[in-house]
Amino acid sequence: MRGGAISAFARLRFARLIGAYLVALAPGTALAKDPIFSVSWMVVPQSLPTKQLTLTPDQSEPLFRIVPKSIYRLPVDAVPQKGKTLIPAGTYLAAVDDVPGMVCEPTRRRGNESFFCLVDTDGDGRFDACRRLPSKEISYGRRGMVIRKSEYLFSMATPLAPETREQPIAIDRWQSGDGFSPLAVELVFDSRFALQSANRFAICISRSDLKDVWGGTIPTRVCLPQITEVKDRDLPVEQNFLGTKVRFLSVAGKALQAEIEYRSSGGEFR
């Protein structure tokens, strides 16, 4: 008797699951997607002369630096009504595009699995809630596919974690974010394939503000998925890397002779 009841319940549950699956696949049915949260970043203007250099495999060359378009520094701890500090004083937060009243960490803090955000839920100019953007695993990196958590908040589709209420923080008490350490955008000589006479380059973003338990720097680098290939037979050739012009001139053993004309203007980093 009991076995029959369980079997009937299992059949009913399975039928409901199949029904929900068929509804989701029905024409015209939109599947729910995670919302996209993004932060605008700007190129820091610079004035550097054209540089002649020799590029070797695994070498990186800084191209320019980037900072969030709207960056602030939290003057006090963000503490929920009951609980420990969620965002410590001194943390830099950036305005989220197209979401009024929301600011988030532009770089992920060491040991955290999420980007922490403050939200003004009632539009009174004070942040009264904390939300988390779980850091999605991304599949790109140097030398093949690497599964890792995203380090920077550029544009990410992710669900919002449940809201945590906190003591309101007035926006007029915020300090300027001028002390934010810019991220370096680098050209990395990823590899050279001698048999194919081909050279591969990647654009990577690095940060040097993470510290280990002894106070030393933990270098962190994330590379964009696009790879630029330069073949020996095409030399000399010029490539434009996000506004910086790199002229690959000739082969010198395992290295390439090159010339870099640095980007001097600011503008949005895309």
Plain-language structure description:
There is one protein chain. This protein has 270 residues and is mainly β. 9% of the residues lie in helices and 43% in strands. It is built from one helix and 20 strands. The protein has a seven-stranded antiparallel sheet, with no helix packed on it. The longest helix is centred in the N-terminal third of the chain and has 24 residues, at 2-25.
Q: What are the main properties of this structure?
A:
20 strands; 5-stranded antiparallel beta sheet; 270 residues; disordered N terminus; elongated; mainly beta; 7-stranded antiparallel beta sheet
Summarize the main sheet: 7 strands, antiparallel
**Span from first to last CA?**
65 Å
Low-pLDDT parts are: 1-6, 9-32, 138-148
The total count of helices amounts to 1
List SSEs in N-to-C order.
Answer: HEEEEEEEEEEEEEEEEEEEE
Q: Which class do the helix and strand fractions yield? A: mainly beta
Work out the number of β strands: 20
Spatial order of the strands in the main sheet?
13-9-8-7-6-5-14
Radius of gyration: 24 Å
Q: Assign a percent range to the helix content.
A: under 10%
Overall pLDDT confidence = 76
The dominant shape is elongated
Proportion in β-strands: 35-45%
